[in-house]
Amino acid sequence: MERKDMKKKQNIRRILQILMVTAVMAAALCITASAEDASGLGAKMNTIYQLVMSVVQGIGLILIAFGLMDFGPGISQHDSAQQLQGLKKMGGGAAMLLGPQIIQLLS
Q: What pTM does this model have?
């Protein structure tokens, strides 16, 4: 019985977290602008874009580091599952690290 109650509480907590994140994202997307401030808004959006891309690159670098920390012991212990997990983390980190440069090349 207690496990069911715990699972219900966890599910409710997850749903509430998802709803809160969705509400914050919806509020962040409601940006009003007038035609007079078009140039100022473009500069602000460019600053926000640069900030987000810097955060993404930082997270990518951290993922590469964690992937290396998983991959190294996997090699020494001959654990293929740990090696694969490390490679996946490094691949995801590399994609996040190189993503902003690829976006700039495509645009």
A: 0.58
